Amino acid sequence: MKKTAIGRWVVCERESSPELRQDPLTGLWVIISPNRSHRPIERETSPLSVEKKECPFCPGNESQTPPEIDAFREKNSLPDQPGWHVRVVPNKYPALNETSQILKSQNLLYNSIPGDGVHEVVIETPDHNSELFSLQVSELVSILKVFSRRLQQIRKNRKLKYALIFKNAGRKAGASLNHPHSQIIATPVLPTKAKIEIQKLKQYYRNNKSCLYCDVIKSEKRQGARVVAESDEFIAYTPFASRFPFETWVISQRHVSRFEMESEDRLHNFAMMLKRVMTKLNRAVGLDAYNFLIHTAPLVAKNDHYFHWHAEILPMMTSVAGFERGAGFYINEIFPELAAQKIREAN
C-alpha cells in the first residue's frame, strides 16, 4: 500500500481503514472512509431486466455480497442462497468497520480515533421493483423485527455508543442501488447532533420531570393542525419546525425509549401506521426520493427515560444548498400545518 506524507500526516492511498476526525472549531465528527468511493453507482436509466440480472441484492446473486449475518428465510433454505424474505449482510463498502488500523491521534488540536464500528445492509425484499410503502404489513413487520434483532446484537459491543437505522430511497436521497434496502451504522462516539439533542432532553427532564417527546405529543394532539394520522398506539405529525417540505414523524404514544425493546404486537401496530402514512405521502407528493430514519436511545445509556424512540420520513423535494450548509438554517417552502392537511386529504 502506497503511503504519502503530507505535512506531519501520513495518508494511505486506497486505505481501507476508516477514521473519525473531530473538527476543533465546531466539535463535529466526520468519518473519513476512502473505501466508500469504490461502491458501484447504479444508473437510473438502466433497463430493469439488466438491473435484476446484475443487482447484487436480487435472489440468485447472493455470492455478490459478503456472507449474510441474519435473515428471515424459508424453512430449510440455506444461508447465502435464494429462499430469503429479508437478508442482512455487512456493507461491502463500509463507512466504518470492526478492524480499523488507524491509531488514535494524540494531537492537541486535532482529535481522531479509529473508524471502529458497524455498517450493515438490510435487504428488505427479494422484489427488485418493490417500494417500502407497497409491501404488505406482514412484510414490514419482518423488516422491523430484523432491525430490532440487529440493534440488540450491536448493543452487545460495549465500544459502540450510537446506532442509526436509515433508508435512502432514490438517487436524490443518496441511494446508490435501486433494490429496496436500508442500512444500520453504529459509531464509537455520539454524533454532535445527537449529543446536543440528548443534552436538551436531559435538561428538560430534570426541569419538568417529564419526557419532552411525550409533552410534544400531548401538545400536537391538543392542537391537531399538524397531526397526519393517529391510532391507539402511534401518532404521525409534521413537526412544528419542519426542516423539509412534508417532513413527517411517527412516534409511539406510549413512552418507550428503545425501538429494539418493542414487542412483536407493537411492531405490527407500527408497521400499520407506517404503511398508512407513507401511502398517504406517496399520494400527496410522490415518494420518488426520501430518507427514512429510526432513532433509538444511545446504545450505552443506563438511564434512558429521557429518550423516546421515533421514526422520520423525509421526502427529498428540495436540495440542501449554500445557506443551509453555511448557516445551519433550513428553508422550508410550506407551512407544516398545510403539509399535514394535504397529507390527511390524500385518500
Spell out the key features of this protein.
alpha+beta, HIT family, subunit A, 2 domains, 7 helices, globular
Summarize the structure in words.
With 347 residues, this protein is α+β, with helices and mostly antiparallel strands. The protein folds into 2 domains: 178 residues, HIT-like (HIT family, subunit A); 143 residues, HIT family, subunit A. 26% of the residues lie in helices and 22% in strands. It contains 7 helices and 15 strands. Helix 2 packs across helix 5. About 2% of the residues have low confidence.
CATH H-level superfamily of the largest domain = HIT-like
The secondary structure category is alpha+beta
| Extended strand count | 15
Q: Describe the main β-sheet briefly.
A: 10 strands, antiparallel
* Helix-strand topology string: EEEEHEEEEHEEHHEEEHEEHH
How helical, in percent, are the residues? 25-40%
Strand content: 15-25%
> Measured on Cα atoms, how large is the radius of gyration?
21 Å
- Let me know the average pLDDT: 90
CATH architecture call of the largest domain: 2-Layer Sandwich
**Tally of separate helices:** 7
CATH class of the largest domain: Alpha Beta
Shape: globular
The stretches of 5 or more residues where confidence is low (pLDDT under 50) are 45-50
Q: Provide the CATH topology of the largest domain.
A: HIT family, subunit A
Fold topology:
Elements: E1 3-6, E2 9-12, E3 19-22, E4 29-32, H1 48-54, E5 70-73, E6 84-90, E7 111-114, E8 118-123, H2 137-154, E9 162-169, E10 181-187, H3 192-208, H4 212-223, E11 227-230, E12 234-237, E13 248-252, H5 264-285, E14 290-295, E15 310-315, H6 322-327, H7 336-344
Antiparallel strand pairs: 1-2, 3-4, 3-7, 5-6, 6-8, 8-10, 9-10, 9-14, 11-12, 12-13, 13-15, 14-15
Helix pairs in contact: 2-5
